[in-house]
């Protein structure tokens, strides 16, 4: 298990595509600092991170990264050669979770550095904008983003198709998450507030100023999402017999 995780980390961060995606993260965050209006001039570094997460920039770039990584397994036929050993799939998912955690953590570090530099160039000063919830916010968002990416990995590997995985990653963000949560509320007569437990809503709606219950809800959202995707992946693997 550890060898596979190490191999995926090495393969991911050795890849030129990963560093191109890091560059894209930096460019998009710097664009947010260009003074199109007076509001941009008052944004802090944390404001930039929050906007980058809430508008889906980091998430969708992370989806590209995990699909590219999953494509290595699809291309070389490794998935088809597992001969029904589901524990091997679980190890791949875990390895991809670790890679996603590293990718999003490094992305946020790059955003902090690049925005600090951009702010000094554009405004002669830089403001971090951190508060007592900053660490919890960043850690919680890294968890949410990483679990989302691991779900994309589950789908990509289960259907053994990178295009399908990529489409899933984008479409789930756009509307599938809301559709599934609404259907769960309707079918199981759950409280309407349950719609807040969608992982996309948790990613885009979480703010630093919220209380601990919101962070707890966000963690539950990631668990609900992963349970849905993991069950789908298992069922698909059994029914289609693609391994």
How is the topology of this model organized?
Blueprint: H1 2-14, H2 16-31, H3 38-42, H4 45-54, H5 57-75, H6 86-123, H7 134-159, H8 162-188, H9 199-205, H10 212-240
Keywords: Membrane, Transmembrane, Transmembrane helix
Transmembrane segments: 49-70, 91-123, 135-159, 166-185, 215-237
- Poorly predicted runs are none
Question: How is the biggest beta sheet arranged?
Answer: none
Oligomer: single chain
Number of helices: 10
Keywords: Membrane, Transmembrane, Transmembrane helix
Transmembrane segments: 49-70, 91-123, 135-159, 166-185, 215-237
Compact overview of the structure:
This protein is an all-alpha fold and 243 residues long.
Would you write up a description of this structure?
The protein has about 240 residues and is an all-alpha fold. It is about 80% helix and about 0% strand. The chain has one domain. The chain contains ten helices and no strands. About 35% of the residues are buried. Keywords: Membrane, Transmembrane, Transmembrane helix.
């Amino acid at each position: 298990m550890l060898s596979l995780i190490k191999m995926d980390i090495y393969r991911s961060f050795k890849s030129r595509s990963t560093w191109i995606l890091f560059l894209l993260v930096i460019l998009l965050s710097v664009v947010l600092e260009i003074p199109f209006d007076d509001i941009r001039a008052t944004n802090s570094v944390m404001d930039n991170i929050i906007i980058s997460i809430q508008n889906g920039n980091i998430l969708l770039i992370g989806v590209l990264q995990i699909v590219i990584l999953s494509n290595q397994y699809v291309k070389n036929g490794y998935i088809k050669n597992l001969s029904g050993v589901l524990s091997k799939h679980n190890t791949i998912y875990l390895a991809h979770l670790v890679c996603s955690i590293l990718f999003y953590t490094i992305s946020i570090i790059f955003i902090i550095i690049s925005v600090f530099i951009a702010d000094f160039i554009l405004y002669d000063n830089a403001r971090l904008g951190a508060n007592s919830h900053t660490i919890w916010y960043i850690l919680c968002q890294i968890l949410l983003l990483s679990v989302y990416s691991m779900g994309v990995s589950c789908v990509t590997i289960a259907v053994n198709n990178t295009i399908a995985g990529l489409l899933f990653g984008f479409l789930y963000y756009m509307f599938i998450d809301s559709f599934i949560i609404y259907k769960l509320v309707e079918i199981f007569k759950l409280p309407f507030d349950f719609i807040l437990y969608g992982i996309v809503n948790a990613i885009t709606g979480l703010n630093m100023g919220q209380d601990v219950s919101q962070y707890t809800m966000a963690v539950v959202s990631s668990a609900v999402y992963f349970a849905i995707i993991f069950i789908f992946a298992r069922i698909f693997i059994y029914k289609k017999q693609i391994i």
